[in-house]
Design a protein that fits this description.
This protein has 442 residues and is α/β, with parallel strands linked by helices.
């Protein structure tokens, strides 16, 4: 991570050399997808790492590429971001534009393009082009045979399960906790009895991935309409209506960041998709207001981890012919970059003890927003917020809480807001605890 001033100007539109006129636009099967990642890693070995967080039902790796200036490690203070494509196997636009974005970031970084260099040097980016390789294989087979793909063939995974209905229904659990007047508002957990259904292999991989890395911001790329969708994705009564979450203002700003940088998403005059007569103001929608999705990945990110996620619907045609892919890339390129930059809004900092020890799992609370986040293992945190002044409290069992005012400016540079907490324990108790921590590390 380079110590530079981040993103103080609007996103610049560059005339790019990639993909050039000689580039062959095509749909990438599993082998071709992996080849894009490997070729990018060979071209940019200093800023990439290819890895798989797990496998699908048919034992296909969910290949992911990390793009950052120090791949393979979490740099304290640096936020982590992720894009996930192709959750529904026959919704392929996200998969294909991510397979362009990956080498694009590499090539623009090597060229020294300032926006890309600053983004990569100060963000740990993870890109998973497909979460559902088995469903994609089914959809691709039909497409190659018929020249088109029907609305649902390949949507589900190999077990015929819709992965975006397979996550734990965190919304239902949260609404229940609210009714009980519980103070729990983050990192919600559910027993298998509460979940009530079998979690698919792909779902389990993503849940583990969510907790392995301290993700701050994410987007899940879909198809079938053109809109940015934000939490809550489900309503208390199961009916379609606006279900506001505690961070409604933040999610609206995040969604507009994408829709307004997209070529047509926020255009009120754009042609509507056949599937809906809906008109989306500014190209965004509250998920529950559009149609409720219980057990979705988007809200699971928000309620189960520190990560804020939106769902991006990128086109009316879920599986367009390859010759249409250049237009999808042109329409989404600037929005993809802009949205990644949004990981740097709000406040960030460290929570430490007076002894200098970092405090993991300290709680960061913002007055007036009923959704807390927690610090990562290095004591670092990132709290996405819209511009304004906030009363922020850091707390942890065994320590006195501390509150301070933190000011968020209208820039793409988070305000530093650090906390040093005083222990409630005696010096002897602190020494014993420190020795126990050292013992655990051995």
């Amino acid at each position: 991570m380079k110590l530079v001033v981040l993103f103080l100007v609007a996103l610049t539109v560059y005339v790019d050399s990639f993909p050039d006129d000689d580039y062959t636009w095509t749909h990438h099967d599993a082998e071709a997808l992996k080849r894009v990642l490997d070729e990018t890693a060979r071209e940019c070995p200093d800023i990439t790492r290819v890895y798989s967080p797990g496998k699908s039902v048919k034992n296909v790796d969910l290949w992911t590429i990390e793009i950052t200036d120090n791949p393979g490690v979490h740099e304290p203070g640096e936020p982590e971001f992720k894009y996930v494509g192709n959750m529904h196997g026959n919704e392929v636009v996200g998969r294909e534009i991510l397979l362009i974005l990956i080498p694009y970031l590499c090539k623009e970084y090597n060229k020294g393009t300032p926006t890309i260099v600053e983004l990569v040097d100060n963000t740990r980016i993870h890109i998973m082009p497909t979460m559902n390789p088995d469903g994609y294989a089914i959809a691709l087979e039909e497409f190659l045979k018929t020249g088109s793909n029907s609305w649902t063939v390949g949507r589900q995974n190999a077990n015929n399960v819709d992965l975006n209905r397979n996550f734990p229904d965190m919304d239902k659990k949260f609404f229940k906790l609210q009714k009980m007047h519980s103070k729990i508002n983050n990192h919600i957990t559910m027993t298998m009895q509460e979940i009530g259904h079998l979690l698919q292999k792909e779902t389990q991989v993503i849940l583990n991935w969510m907790t392995e890395y301290p993700f701050v911001l994410s987007a899940n790329l879909h198809g079938g309409d053109i809109v940015a969708n934000y939490p809550f994705d489900a309503s208390k009564d199961g009916r379609p209506h606006y279900q506001k979450c505690a961070d409604d203002a933040v999610f609206i700003e995040l969604s507009k960041a994408y829709s307004q940088a997209h070529a047509t998403m926020s255009d009120p005059g754009r042609k509507k998709c056949d599937m809906t007569e809906e008109s989306f103001d500014d190209g965004i929608t509250n998920g529950a207001d559009w149609y409720p999705v219980p057990g979705g990945m988007q809200d699971t990110n928000y309620m189960y981890t520190n990560c804020f996620e939106i769902t991006l619907e990128l086109g009316c045609n879920k599986f367009p012919p390859a010759e249409q892919l250049p237009q999808f890339w042109d329409d989404n390129k600037n929005a993809l970059i802009k949205y990644m930059q949004m990981v740097h809004i709000g406040i960030k900092g460290f929570v430490t003890a007076e002894s200098g020890d970092v405090l993991e799992n300290a709680v960061i609370s913002v007055k007036g927003i009923n959704h807390d986040i927690t610090t990562a293992p290095d004591g670092d945190y990132w709290r996405l917020l819209v511009p304004g002044s906030y009363k922020v409290t850091a707390s942890k069992p065994g320590y006195l809480p501390k509150t301070k005012m933190c000011r968020v400016e209208d820039t793409l540079e988070a305000t530093h807001c650090n906390f040093v907490l005083t222990s409630r324990m005696s010096d002897l108790e602190q020494d014993i605890l420190r020795e126990l921590r050292e013992w655990d590390k051995q």
